[in-house]
Automatic annotation (TrEMBL):
Its EC number is 4.1.1.35. Residues 30-84 form the UDP-glucuronate decarboxylase N-terminal domain. It is found in: Golgi apparatus, Golgi stack membrane. Residues 98-392 form the NAD(P)-binding domain. Its cofactor is NAD(+). Catalyzes the NAD-dependent decarboxylation of UDP-glucuronic acid to UDP-xylose. Necessary for the biosynthesis of the core tetrasaccharide in glycosaminoglycan biosynthesis. It catalyses: UDP-alpha-D-glucuronate + H(+) = UDP-alpha-D-xylose + CO2. GO terms for molecular function: NAD+ binding; protein homodimerization activity; UDP-glucuronate decarboxylase activity. Keywords: Decarboxylase, Glycoprotein, Golgi apparatus, Lyase, Membrane, NAD, Signal-anchor, Transmembrane, Transmembrane helix. It is a single-pass type II membrane protein. This is UDP-glucuronic acid decarboxylase 1. It comes from Myotis lucifugus (Little brown bat). It comes from the Eukaryota. InterPro entries: NAD(P)-bd_dom, NAD(P)-bd_dom_sf, UXS-like, UXS1_N.
Amino acid sequence: VTGSALLNAEPQMRYPKIRGIYGIILFLLSLTAVWGNYVNMSFLLNRSIQENGEMKLERKIEEIVEPLREKIRDLEKSFTQKYPPVKFLSEKDRKRILITGGAGFVGSHLTDKLMMDGHEVTVVDNFFTGRKRNVEHWIGHENFELINHDVVEPLYIEVDQIYHLASPASPPNYMYNPIKTLKTNTIGTLNMLGLAKRVGARLLLASTSEVYGDPEVHPQSEEYWGHVNPIGPRACYDEGKRVAETMCYAYMKQEGVEVRVARIFNTFGPRMHMNDGRVVSNFILQALQGEPLTVYGSGSQTRAFQYVSDLVNGLVVLMNSNVSSPVNLGNPEEHTILEFAQLIKDLVGSGSEIQFLSEAQDDPQKRKPDIKKAKLMLGWEPVVPLEEGLNKAIHYFRKELEYQANNQYIPKPKPARIKKGRTRHN
Ligand SMILES: NC(=O)c1ccc[n+]([C@@H]2O[C@H](COP(=O)([O-])OP(=O)(O)OC[C@H]3O[C@@H](n4cnc5c(N)ncnc54)[C@H](O)[C@@H]3O)[C@@H](O)[C@H]2O)c1
């Protein structure tokens, strides 16, 4: 079109030379146009092939990815549903609570209660006797935090209340490393009191009936000063707790820190450590495994056991009360060790025999709390009957034994090593 337009446009173009040049130009222009069209077309063609390929690939990827997305959605759903239900507390009522030793037996039940009540709970534990499994059902919850930390080292966090439970509690555990037990109860308690002072938090100390030692009065009330052997095998724990109490009242008087002191008596329930070594867990495990139930001495020494949920309720009531002097928390229902052995044997339905061994050193002969003060000032008393509590503990230990049996690590036999060189006669 361009060429013919040129030929027709100017009369001088009819001369042959000029016409030749214009012919060449015409030819070149047509060639350029054809080449341009070709390049354009092949570009479009390539692009559509490429786009087609990309779409197919995208569709393929989508087909693979969609089921995975579905699985992630399901997992997320099950993840958010797995937490036990928690109450909603307004900003004003919700407290930031630290539980030292919160991955232990009592601490984990306290964690459950405070979480379900709607508070923000930080558990600090060095996992000496505690386990992540005890609080794993809260891991990931927005109100929960777990910190692996030793209270012998200072801790800097912001909290409103501190339940200071960190300390090994059973004789085999606290005797395992008496110096560490002393450090935990002295330096650890100083650190927590320092934290309480810094952030203006209230601190509750988990003290123990062991501060009464081998008591000369019966039952033991809070006024009794105790009968402790300061250099005996239990001293690291008994004296550690006694000085921890002293520290609380020094911080209260000198620094105005609000303190609460619970003198806890023997407690039992699910999540007690398998190697706890205390009477109830020993007897239950022995009965479940068909082993003899071992009684130290004649078995006439008495004990009174409270179920863990009663203790946890008592701790929370005490923390939120205005009672700053020590309070006994325990179940006054007293039984001889022999009676416990017989009862547990019956509840398990075990054929185990009862075996008498020589008396343990510094083993208190009598232990029974006087809980008049807790009743009067806190309106608290234990409510779970002994048999009901024991059945729950037995159920727990039975499941734990099954769990252990199913998760046992059985090492594969190693292939025999083939020695090079001389053969040996074995
Ligand atoms: N269970 C009872 O019968 C009983 C009786 C009297 C007093 N108490 C007191 O109650 C508290 C809890 O006892 P429990 O029976 O749950 O014992 P537990 O051994 O199950 O729990 C103690 C927890 O403290 C942790 N812990 C120990 N040393 C620590 C350290 N240095 N830093 C951080 N964490 C540390 C352990 O790992 C564990 O999780 C203890 O202070 C104990 O003295 C318990």
